[in-house]
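Escalated from tier 1: flavin mononucleotide holo job.
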Amino acid sequence: MARLLHIDSSPMGDMSVSRGLAAAFRARWEEELPTGTVVYRDVCADPLPLLDRDAIMTFYMPEEARTQAQAEAARYRTALAEELLSADAVLVSAPMHNWTIPAHLKAWLDQVLIDGVTLVQPGETHPLAGRPATVVLAYGGGYTPDAPLAGWDHVEPYLRTVFAGALQMELSVITAQLTLVNEPPELAELARKSRREAEAAIEERARKVAAQLAG
Ligand SMILES: Cc1cc2nc3c(=O)[nH]c(=O)nc-3n(C[C@H](O)[C@H](O)[C@H](O)COP(=O)(O)O)c2cc1C
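Tier 2 regenerated the structure:
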């Protein structure tokens, strides 16, 4: 049975564009693959703790030397890692906050990325290699290559490094840009176009991922 790990990270609830797009993906995926299961994590409703010294050091010491706090941190992080590694597909939605990902999502990544467990050495094949990851983003401004702030986007390049680079997943990034722009009319039209294109891309990607996992 195919398992989708779905993670939302916008604090904006039902006002969130990225959550809305991810929900559309999930609805289509569930319709196309009714036998599939979804593991859902809302990192805003249930925030993950920031990494502390115990959570880091626990993986660099013999198990029997761990304090209770270190053992608990190891159990917590290992469970998150198992949740990720058992996913046949991953869906992550995120807003741009101050040109990068929100702290809630970074906290999940910091907890779940563990040397030798969810991170492999260069040249090694990752257990998630080739599995589909879909990253759905919403930006208030515009960061296309021709935009004045093109180089300020530290969301997509960073998440590409994580999901396509470190985790070696087959990655598709779908972004609605200019979500906060209502004027001038030319920019408002670009905003509507970006949203329409993102919605169409979501439909196509959800069908593709479902078909891949069904077959
Ligand atoms: C705290 C905060 C910081 C933001 N920083 C940026 C930014 O650096 N660049 C940008 O284009 N939009 C920025 N925005 C606007 C959001 O990217 C935009 O509202 C987007 O739609 C958020 O995704 P969401 O609708 O899924 O929450 C920011 C919004 C908030 C609340």
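The chain is about 40% helix and 15% strand.
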